[in-house]
Amino acid sequence: MDNNIIFGSAAALIAASVSWGVCKSLTKKKQTLYENFIKERLSAHSEILDIIDDNLVILDENSEIAYINNAMKSFLGFDKKDIPKQFPMPEVVENNFKVSLENILEKIKINPYKFIINHGELILFINNRKVPIQLYISQYFNMDINSKRKVRILIFKDNRKDKEKEQFAHKHKLTKLPNHLKLQKDLQSTFVKLHLNDRRLAVVSMEIDEFSSLRSIIGYEKANDILITFATHLNTMAKEFSFVVYHTIHNTFILFMDSINNETDIYSVINLIQDKLRSLYKMENSILHLTTSVGIALYPDNSTTGELLNNSYKALNQAQKKGNGWVEMYKKTDTSHGYDELKLYNDMHLGLQKNEFEIYYQPIVSSQTRKIVSAEALIRWKHPEYGMVRPDIFIPIMEKTGFIIKLGRYLISEVLKQQKRWELFKFNQVPVSINLSLAELEKDNFVRIVESELQNNKVSAELIKYEITEGLAMENEERTYNQLSELRKLGVNILLDDFGTGYTSFSYIKKIPANIIKIDRSLVINILTSSKDQGITKAIIDLAHSIGMKVVVEGVEDEHMFNKLRDMGADYIQGYYISKPIPVFEFQEFLRP
Ligand code: C2E
Ligand code: CA
Ligand code: CA
């Protein structure tokens, strides 16, 4: 092989090549890098290709080897010094059929796509061993500007490596239990699905008490033995009581329970673990009395993955302060939510670009027919680190910083596009209401934006509503009145949200060009038991009707509440009893003709 044909000398690329070397998987960018690398003859020495851990071969049109790197040589079972003259075309299995690599190369000749072709998983036979691979093959390109010799790059990605690496990365080295990385991953994926059912979760942190002093007495080896024995025991219990156990660091173990009915369940599992640990370990025929302290955090009391983990540690810390073997449940002591607001603020901008925000829809039904009459758009943020962040957390930050304007534009534009799609696909369309913040209304051009969005999307104004809160409407009366009247003139309906939460005043209602009021959840929580709340709710409904307004009640969670409110005269009902807010694809089942 003539190295010099390909490899000139340009030491500059050494730096770039190092990062390829550590790259685990072959990204598109990397493929392009490889191609440019050869193409532009920027390549320094073959050494560069030889420190890359991808298995790489460069073949010319006659399938002769122009270059084969060290990784590929050892992958094929050659000694590093051996240079095979002809590339030993391995056999591969594609869709259960054995085909030769030549066949595949042949197929690719007529493939119109420009660059790398990824065949999914193939099986490669090397010395009668089956190796799952992914194969990347580039198109031919001129090896260098002066030469007519055409070459292409083949990369054999050994899938075993990735799997091994991933498994390795997700296990604790000593106890082989899933580790903190796996915990994060599992928590995230559970959280994404949480809205689908009313699940309760518990994150339980536990540490063997006084472990570091114990270790200094009995030595590392025996201390490790204890950890392994404890881990094995926890793992057995995990299967029996269906929770998952993780070993994060040192002597910290985390139990993740996602199928609990009540707090008593958690305590009884913990008691069993603690009991067992007391007599688990024997040393020189005498039992070592070990204790473990425990901290618990529950979902939905802690509403994000970050909160759950941090607060279970906090509880553990409290427990340890109280003494060995203590169990402590995290209790919210203040109202701060534990998020880093600055981080959330910084992340919003990119989040919007990266489609991390998603609109959920919650149906609103007629109390008489139970048929859907409209829906509320409620924003969700799937934050890459925190998981699902509640709007209560980030909306106030957006309002403080003005970002809410951007979100508002996103909402109107997305909702209208969605309406258009429903129209095209002949769904039964219903109006969708969007929550409006004061900052949006303060922008002079707000009404103009709504107007132009309606025109651009060719959607009728009746298909959207804006929900405003009483407080908001009272803030700057005249100006608000003018803006809202203009919206009404466009044909957009206004709904007065959170009614009954404090400012309630019917003299104001008349001043606001709204035609629907929504009674707040806080008034209906005790509707079945509190005669006071019944009185207020009934009065609001009657008064609203007397001035020609319709009434929605939100937060209706069961049939008794539904029936009660219907009998009290509520026109429309919204709440978990009908449905939680759900992603568009689930929601549109309500609209299917
Ligand atoms: P809101 O406008 O009062 O929205 C109603 C809230 O009650 C929603 O919470 C909804 O999920 C919840 N809810 C509905 N039915 C029930 C029920 O039966 N039981 C219980 N426990 N809750 C129920 P969510 O989605 O967390 O929104 C919270 C607040 O965040 C909203 O209160 C609204 O003020 C604000 N928000 C949400 N999305 C947006 C948005 O797109 N723009 C603006 N400006 N604010 C938004
Ligand atoms: Ca609302
Ligand atoms: Ca509300």
Give descriptors for this structure.
eight-stranded mixed beta barrel, eight-stranded antiparallel beta sheet, 3 domains, about 600 residues, 25 strands, Alpha-Beta Plaits, flat, Beta-Lactamase, 24 helices, TIM Barrel, binds calcium ion, alpha+beta, binds ligand C2E, single chain, disordered N terminus, about 45% helix
Topology, pairings included?
Blueprint: H1 3-6, H2 13-22, H3 28-39, H4 46-51, E1 55-60, E2 65-68, H5 70-75, E3 91-94, E4 97-100, H6 101-109, E5 117-126, E6 129-137, E7 141-142, E8 150-158, H7 159-169, H8 180-193, E9 201-208, H9 211-218, H10 220-240, E10 244-247, E11 252-257, H11 263-278, E12 281-283, E13 286-288, E14 292-299, H12 305-322, E15 327-329, H13 341-353, E16 357-366, E17 372-383, E18 387-389, H14 391-401, H15 403-424, E19 432-435, H16 438-442, H17 446-457, E20 464-469, H18 470-475, H19 477-490, E21 493-499, H20 506-511, E22 516-519, H21 521-524, H22 531-546, E23 550-553, H23 559-567, E24 572-574, E25 582-583, H24 584-587
Parallel strand pairs: 14-15, 17-19, 19-20, 20-21, 21-22, 22-23, 23-24
Antiparallel strand pairs: 1-2, 1-8, 3-4, 3-5, 5-6, 6-8, 7-8, 9-11, 9-14, 10-11, 12-13, 16-17, 16-24, 16-25, 17-18
Helix pairs in contact: 9-10, 14-15, 15-17, 17-19
The structure holds ligand C2E and calcium ion (2 copies).
